[in-house]
Design brief:
The structure is a single chain. By secondary structure, the protein is mainly α. It has two domains: about 220 residues, Hypothetical protein af1432, CATH 1.10.3210.10; about 180 residues, Hypothetical protein af1432 (Orthogonal Bundle), CATH 1.10.3210. The protein is built from 19 helices and two strands. It is elongated and about 70 Å long. The structure holds fe (ii) ion (4 copies). The site of one fe (ii) ion has 5 residues, from helix 15.
Length: about 400
Amino acid sequence: MQIHFNDLLYALSLALDYVESELTGVKPFHAERVAYITVLLGRAYGLADSVLLSLAAAAVLHDNSLTECISLRWQPRSEQSLMNARPKDFPAALRSHCFIGEKNLQVFSFYPSIRNAVLYHHENADGSGPFHLHSADTPLLAQLIHMAHLLDEHFILNQATIEMPPINSWLRRHTDHFFTRDLAAAISSLFPTLSPEDLTDINIRQQLQKLLPHSIHEYPLTEIQNVAVLFAHIIDYKSHLTCTHSADIAQKAEQLGHYLKQDPETCTKFYLAGALHDIGKLTIARTILEKPDRLTKKEYTIVKRHALASWQILKPITELPDVVEWAAFHHEKLNGTGYPFGKNAAQLSVNARLLCCIDIYQALIEARPYKKVMPHNQVIRMMRAMVRNGEIDGPLTEAINKCFLHQ
Ligand SMILES: [Fe+2]
Ligand SMILES: [Fe+2]
Ligand SMILES: [Fe+2]
Ligand SMILES: [Fe+2]
């Protein structure tokens, strides 16, 4: 598939920012600012562009395990308070956060060049981090991500102002504790050369793209599928009530694609669209997504906003406009009663209708707190009623009936 791999990750990392923001209050585009600062630091240390490209991918994904850790019942106070704690107080959960985040990246082809960068991204220079590694034993790439994360967490870098006196005094205060003298000196020389506008929410992605070689390559479908699997899990871990929804939809959309004799690339795109369709749910508070009862009208209105949020997160992936459309239109109906745009039959491609039908099928067969698992035949009866009502596609409903009859 022809794609700029890092661009795909940058776009999706915005969803990770919502998760990290809900937990620790980081600002939007945190992941991309961390990547930007990390790459600039890496360049100051003389790293080659090929390594920097992988480092940028690791940096935008540095906190990829947060929803998975929440699902393991980790309720952090904040990363900052964890870092101020004495070594013996570090919860094992912070180690899990690093360990799982590292493990999730091992499937990617860029992994060998960033090995251990995420595993040790919370290590402090004095050995007071979660794995008690001193700076001499911590990989440089991990130290760079750690420094960039701390800076973006402590300072408001997204509002076109960089005030050096407070940054310098913070660097002096924490030298030899959080980071090495050498790294503090690198930041002191780097920051005065930055244009503050480059770090703003509106500019950061473009600046990050400009920093590194930016060409489109043919990527193996398995590599794209690995991104889809990672994000499907990140989305699904957000709510244990729908804990395999995205992964199941990805798998069923791909399976239906094969059943309909679509080519392998289109089937992978179905997988990707299925995995990402509910990415906007990462913007919705967990208290609502995890509510064990039926939602109130107001709460339902809030949940419905996830479809627009999916569209906003995915639309910058300009190389895959079809995937973006299929994913973001999954709540649109042929008779115009869907959301977020109220599109009609003429505006909904067959493949967009496919994602909508699979989403309905999967939601109906899944158990929810207010409903039990529904058998296939009953689901198909309900979907045929929706076809008669002009909401969803008839031939696709019949294809779903045949394709999943014996599952
Ligand atoms: Fe982290
Ligand atoms: Fe972070
Ligand atoms: Fe949805
Ligand atoms: Fe869904």
